[in-house]
Amino acid sequence: MIATAKVLASVLLPWLTWGLLAAPVLAQPPAALPLDDRAISLGRWSVVSVEMNGRPVDPDLLAMLQLHYRADGSWAVLFQNLPVAEGTSTYHQDASPKTFEMATLGSESIKPSRYVGIYRHDGDMRILCFAPEGKPRPEDFTAPRRTGRTLVTLRRVAEP
After folding, report:
1. What are phi and psi for residue 3, nearest 5 degrees?
2. Domain extents for the chain?
3. Rounded CA separation 17/116 (Å)
4. Given its phi and psi angles, is residue 58 left (phi above 0), alpha (psi -120 to 50 degrees) or beta?
5. In angstroms, rounded to a whole number, what is the distance separating the alpha carbons of residues 19 and 27?
6. CATH fold of the domain at 2-156
């Protein structure tokens, strides 16, 4: 189950996003987000739904995942509260729709990856749509088959 979560995290995290999303050079620290988007993104987010290449991901697996966004633009995917993937994101909140680049940092079991995407906020929800670097950046919030796109919906987790 953890191996499945790590594979899923390496593809999603992108979402995960935001973090749900990539510094031009991984060795460089990510740029800080503008205060308004940074304030919106900080903390933990549960995964409501994920569609990858036109196929939904099992909701029982998603229920065990969370995304934790940090003030420096980095993020971590948590599986049952244990980190399984980490990365950085760069956001462009002045674009329409808002855009991001994301990079997973890689680990023993996850290869480093880069993604390009779009995002929006709707109350306590964040919606991310992204594709692997080299594929076109999504222009809408859909993930049809054979596009390589992932569509992620996150909900803010209430702080205890």
Report:
1. -60, -40
2. 2-156
3. 10
4. beta
5. 18
6. Lipocalin (2.40.128)
How confident is the model over 72-115, as pLDDT tens digits? 889 999 999 999 889 998 888 889 999 999 999 877 777 889 99
Determine how many CB atoms are found less than 10 A away from the CB of residue 126: 25
Cα gap 89→76, rounded to integer Å: 11
- Cα distances (angstroms) measured from residue 65 to each of 58, 136, 147: 11, 27, 24
Q: How distant is the alpha carbon of residue 59 from its chain centre?
A: 17
Where on the phi/psi map is residue 60: left (φ > 0), alpha (ψ -120 to 50), or beta? alpha
Q: Transcribe 55-113 into DSSP letters.
A: EEPPHHHHTTEEEEE-TTSEEEEEETTEEEEEEEEEEETTSSSEEEEEEE---SSS--E
β partners of residue 90: 101
- Residue-wise DSSP of 21-48: ---SSTTSPPPPPPHHHHHHH-EEEEEE
Q: How far apart are CA 138 and CA 95, in angstroms?
A: 13
SS3 state of residue 8: helix
pTM: predicted TM-score of the whole model, two decimal places? 0.77
